[in-house]
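One chain is below:
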Amino acid sequence: MREDIEFEAEGDTLRGWLYTPQDATGPVPTIVMAHGFSAVKEMYLDKYAEVFSDAGLGALVFDNRNFGDSEGEPRYEIDPWQQVRDYRHAITYAITRDEVDGDRIGVWGSSYSGGHVLTVGALDHRVSAVVSQVPLTDGYHNVRRLVRSDIMDQYREQFDQDRLARFQGEEPETVPVVSEELLGEAALPTQDAYEWFMETEEERAPNWENKVTLKTVEMLSEYAPIDYIDRISPTPLLMIIAEGDHLAVADKAFEAYEKAREPKRLVTLDGGHFDAYVNKFDESSGPAREWFVDHLAEADG
C-alpha cells in the first residue's frame, strides 16, 4: 500500500510516498528514506521500500528539498546540513501518522544520504536503527580523490566568482552532475556514475535533471559524517559498503566503520557504488530488511 504524502519543512513542502504493509492492524515500525546526490525517489527507492513493506515495516520515502516533487529554492542545490534537518522533519511528520509507531523509527540512506543517516543517527535520539549504504563519509577526502588538482584549483576560483555573483543578485552557477566527458566539470566525474544516471533517468526517472549548483560542490567538500559516527552508539548501525566503490571511496567508508562503536555490523558487496541498486540489490536490501526487523521488533517479541 502506497500513499502520496507531503509535509512542511521550514517553509517548503517536501513530497514523497508512505508505504504500509497490507496486513497491518495497527501502527508499524517505519523507515525514513531519502536518496543520494541529486537523485530522486523514483531511482529505485520504491524497490527498497517494497522490500521493507513486505517484511511488515512501513517506509516513508521523500524527495530531497530542491529536487524531484519537493519544493525548495534554489533548485538543484544540495546543502547537506539542510538535508540532515529534512530527515529530522520527515521523522517528525512520520510520528504524527496513525500508521506509524513513533517509538520504532529507522533511517536508511544511500550514497550522500548514506552519510546523512550517520549524522542523523548520531544527533536524533528518536532513531532506533540505522542503515547506511555505500555512504559518503568524508566530502573533502572524496573531492580530493575524484577531482584532479588542476581542476580543483579552477573550482576554487569559480566558487569565489559564484559567491560574488550571488551577492550581486545573479542566479547561481550550475554544473552537470555527470558527463560523458570525464575530464570536464561534472560533480560526479566517474564512468559508472554517468552510465547509471543516464540509464536510470531513461528507464525510471524522467524528472531527474543533470545539474546541481556550483555551491553544491563546495558544500560537499566541507561535509564529513565520519566526524559523527562514534556518537551513534547505542543505536544499532549497519553499514553496507561496496568493495569496488571509487565514487564514495570504499577505504574511507571502512575507516568510518572502524570508528563506529557497538552495536554495529558490516556487510560488503562485491562490486561498485551503483551495483547496490541493481546487480546487488538483493544483497543490499536483504541485510537492511533483516537489520530493521531485528532492531525495531517489539521488545517482548
Notes: Residues 2-142+224-295 form a domain with the Rossmann fold fold (CATH 3.40.50.1820). The longest strand covers residues 100-110. The CA atoms of residues 186 and 248 lie 15 Å apart. The mean pLDDT is 95.
